[in-house]
Design brief:
Blueprint: E1 13-14, E2 21-22, H1 24-41, E3 50-54, H2 59-74, E4 80-87, H3 94-108, E5 111-116, H4 117-121, H5 125-134, H6 141-159, E6 164-166, H7 171-183, H8 187-190, E7 196-197, E8 206-208, H9 216-225, H10 243-257, H11 261-274, E9 284-285, E10 292-293, H12 299-306
Parallel strand pairs: 3-4, 3-6, 4-5, 6-8
Antiparallel strand pairs: 1-2, 7-8, 9-10
Helix pairs in contact: 2-3, 2-9, 7-10, 7-11
This protein binds zinc ion (2 copies).
Length: 314
């Protein structure tokens, strides 16, 4: 492998586009600079904020929790940090990741809140998928999971007095979502793909994506260097069935052919989101459950109705 562009020591990271090579020390500095820039530029956090970090137990969210706790100490930000884990109820998968979140939050000394689909909706994701099948609905486990998870993250973050909800979405995630929304011509969602998202709705907890400008391989390397990378790779059994999985594969393939393609797609997204002021988010109130919604009935209630778990009265 190449030598570090800064100190000449053995590099552990090489950026294919731009020819930058970095040793462990200089990679961690580069990582830190990039995240701090995103935080500063987009005013993601204020001093003494109560930050709720959405932690699934995967490498990215464990890295975010680890990074923010350390930054708060180093930069004397005085943040109160709570890890929030949603237990969707996927057998053979969640128990394992929940264990990892428990271990890291106790090592870091942060509070941990676990909220399950079963407690809030009455059904685990496995049960919801089964009900959908029985009713002959299209097989969309990741859609149910995504909608219900976002719904719960907002609701629970608010219930525990969080001021801002930080998620570990990195550049790869954002670019994937951007492309998926282009394919379905969903511009209202594209306009929400910003590092920070606020809403006029008072029940909506402000969102922050500190890893917005980092490549997935960079968050992965951070996880490895800090001992956060799982020794056993446990993927959600539903993930390979999602459209996102395919988009991710295609994007990685294209990046191999044309290094820098992810960055240029990101610049395209930034151009698109700057065309419109994005301080909107969910501005209506669901007439069924009272949570923030972008339409009369929120997506979570809509899905519940389709599954027969909720009766919609006209
Ligand atoms: Zn170096
Ligand atoms: Zn609702």
């Amino acid at each position: 492998m190449a030598n570090c562009s800064i100190c000449g020591r053995q590099a552990i990271y090489v950026a294919k586009s731009g020819g930058l090579a970095l040793c462990k020390k200089h990679f961690l500095e580069y990582f830190d600079r990039k995240v701090r820039k995103t935080i500063r530029k987009n005013k993601l956090f204020n001093k003494n904020d109560h930050i709720v970090v959405a932690v699934s137990g995967g490498k990215d969210s464990l890295s975010l929790l680890h990074y923010l706790v350390n930054l708060s100490k180093r930069a004397r930000m005085g943040w109160r940090i709570t890890a929030l884990t949603i237990d969707e109820g996927v057998s053979g998968y969640r128990n394992y990741t929940v264990k990892r979140v428990k271990e890291l939050s106790s090592t870091l000394g942060v509070e941990l809140k676990i909220a399950s689909f079963k407690d809030y909706f009455g059904y685990t994701l496995d049960e919801v998928v089964k009900i959908g099948k029985e009713r002959g609905l299209p097989y969309l486990p990741c859609t149910y999971c995504g909608v219900f998870r976002r719904y719960l993250l907002n609701k629970v973050a608010r219930e525990i007095d969080g001021m801002v909800l930080a998620t570990a979405h990195h550049l790869d995630d954002v670019v994937q979502t951007y492309l998926m929304n282009i394919f379905s011509n969903n511009w209202s969602s594209i306009h929400k793909l910003t590092p920070s998202l606020t809403s006029v709705h008072k029940l909506f907890v402000r969102r922050a994506k500190p890893f917005y400008e980092l490549l997935e391989k960079e968050t992965t390397l951070y996880a490895i260097l800090n001992g956060l990378y799982p020794s056993e790779r446990v993927e959600c059994p539903y993930a390979p069935l999602s459209f996102r999985w395919q988009v991710r594969k295609v994007l990685n393939y294209l990046e191999e052919l044309r290094p820098g393609l992810k960055y240029s797609t990101m610049r395209s997204l930034m151009e698109a989101t700057s065309l419109k002021n994005t301080a909107l988010g969910e501005a209506m109130t669901c007439r069924v459950c009272g949570e923030p919604s972008s339409r009369e009935i929120c997506k979570a209630c809509q899905l519940k109705a389709e599954l027969g778990l909720l009766e919609l009265r006209r």
